Amino acid sequence: MLAPIQIICIAVFTLACGAMFYALFGYPLLLDWMAKHSHNPVQKDDKLRTVSFVIAVYNGEKFLERKLKAIFEQNYPRELIDVLVVSDGSTDRTDEIARSFANQGVRFLRVAHGGKAAALNAAVPLAAGEILALNDVRQTLDRDCLRNIIACFGDPKVGAVSPQTIIVQGETHEETTTSLYWRYEHWIRLRLTRIDSTFGYSGAFAAIRRSLWTPLPPGTLLDDVYEPLVAFFKGHRILMEPSATMYDYPTVLNSEFRRKVRLQAGLYQMLKIMPELLSARNRMRLHFLSAKYGRIVIPYCMIAVALATIGLPPYWRAVAGWGQGLFYALAALDPVVSDGIPLKKVTSPVRTFVVLMAASLAAVRVYFVQPTSLWKEASYRSAIAEQTAQPGDSSESKVPKGSEV
């Protein structure tokens, strides 16, 4: 006969495990099935539209020259491209590099350091192109990226489009496993595009109709979610276009932790800014809750499972306790396991998962600190930083080849 506390703990344990299983496996299976049974093609055309590139950058001297060259090498008429660099109070050579491209038509704007949202709010009113191409400084672009993106705007239902991202193959297990999140996100966005719409675009590169741009609320953490959702609620689709490609480098785990804190904090923030996300106005509500907030609840479910384990019947308590202990021990062991040891293939993904779940918990800081304080500069291996900083190389020669994510 089970004691009442054991019944409660079994119920909590089962519900928490069920929620985690749905978020990690159940919803992806459902999404894949729905995507295979959806037919919602994009009506593309060949019209060449005017494009205003807006590059908001803070201390981007290692990447800015390469990024501007990548834009100029696009397979797109140069006379239809306008480029504006907005420096968010940079303290390195960013301003100097941007000004050195003035003779190539690059415009420059410097604003006081106030975060990406404030920088974009200052810069976008100066852009006149039919399409805004909002860029971070780090990533490079395939030569046909812009042309393939712009073709999607032949469909009047399309409000914003992002390319796929290819990450250079990591040289360490840590770099490889931190890119797994992006592979998963790419997989999700591709299927959401087939069904109807994604819930955001890539902040690294996104094209949006100029007419749909709305000034960002002060302190917005996720401009790449807020802006496309405004367009989404106006009836437009937000797409990821797989024929358009940009390239990026893998980050180290502590940088991915900080990025994840900001992303999850931004999702908490979005509920306050756009409560209609939970209403019937959101035609993709099931997907939004499952894809975005399903992942947010995972760390809380992990805590619930750990606490409920204490009250399970003896045999199940032992099995669940040892299983969780082994899982967290593998994560703790990972920093001292070298890349050449086969065990690293197990410990690295487990540690990455645990760290990212901890980041999700840490995201509640958004309610207690200034949101902009959660913005942190990305970190890389020193070899990557040195490679990207080398002057005089064309963007095509610097295109990193790696894994699609």
Question: What is the strand and helix layout of this fold?
Answer:
Blueprint: H1 4-36, E1 51-57, H2 64-72, E2 81-88, H3 94-99, E3 106-111, H4 116-123, E4 131-135, E5 140-141, H5 145-151, E6 158-168, H6 173-178, H7 180-195, E7 205-209, H8 223-232, E8 237-248, H9 253-273, H10 285-296, H11 298-309, H12 314-333, H13 344-362, H14 382-389, E9 402-404
Parallel strand pairs: 1-2, 1-4, 2-3, 6-8
Antiparallel strand pairs: 4-7, 5-8, 6-7, 6-9
Helix pairs in contact: 1-7, 1-10, 1-11, 9-13, 12-13
Main CATH class of the largest domain: Alpha Beta
Residue share in helix: 40-55%
- For this structure, the CATH topology of the largest domain is Spore Coat Polysaccharide Biosynthesis Protein SpsA, Chain A
Q: Largest sheet, described in full? A: 9 strands, mixed
Order of helices and strands: HEHEHEHEEHEHHEHEHHHHHHE
- Strand tally is 9
CATH architecture descriptor of the largest domain:
Alpha-Beta Complex
Alpha-beta content class? alpha/beta
Cα-atom Rg, whole angstroms?
Answer: 22 Å
The number of domains: 2
**pLDDT averaged residue by residue:** 87
Q: How much beta, percentage-wise? A: 5-15%
CATH superfamily of the largest domain, by name, is Spore Coat Polysaccharide Biosynthesis Protein SpsA, Chain A
Low-confidence stretches: 381-405
Your description of this structure?
The protein is an alpha/beta fold. It folds into 2 domains: 1-37 and 253-379, no CATH class; 51-251, Spore Coat Polysaccharide Biosynthesis Protein SpsA, Chain A. The chain is 46% helix and 15% strand. It contains 14 helices and 9 strands. Strands 1, 2, 3, 4, 5, 6, 7, 8 and 9 form a 9-stranded mixed beta sheet that branches. Helix 1 crosses helix 10 and helix 9 (253-273) packs parallel to helix 13 (344-362). The longest helix has 33 residues, at 4-36. The chain is globular and about 80 Å long.
